[in-house]
């Protein structure tokens, strides 16, 4: 699918999708409920610390393929399930591979909490599911992917189980 086709589909969803599917279904965000956030197990740094720098030295590039591979290395070290294909499929749907993508139109954005990054995470979700060993910057590609995968693991069992808007 070309970037133009993706933009057209997103624009069409923004105009017609809200009327037919509802704002909650159209929102492209990763949001824990208050109860989920309170019950979330914390991932501790007792597992081998994998960092953005270490993964880069291991041969991953500074591009989408490299970011996914770096995130997978951290996820493996932290016991977070997910696959390259599951991450890439969700990234392409959510942001088209743009680490600086920001949703400025949904209910979260209207409430001052826009979703950001490759997997369109809102700040409260990023902060709740941030994985140690990654940057504390929501638009850092590896941190964004890893936090979103951590959220998806707790909510859906794995990012691989997510096939539509979160």
UniProtKB/TrEMBL annotation:
Organism: Streptomyces murinus
Pfam annotation, one family: SLT
SUPFAM superfamilies per UniProt: Lysozyme-like
Full protein name: Transglycosylase SLT domain-containing protein
Keyword Metal-binding carried by entry: no
InterPro entries the record matches: Lysozyme-like_dom_sf, Transglycosylase_SLT_dom_1
Keywords in alphabetical order: Signal
Keyword Glycoprotein annotated: no
First and last residue of the signal peptide: 1-37
Transglycosylase SLT domain ranges (all copies): 91-163
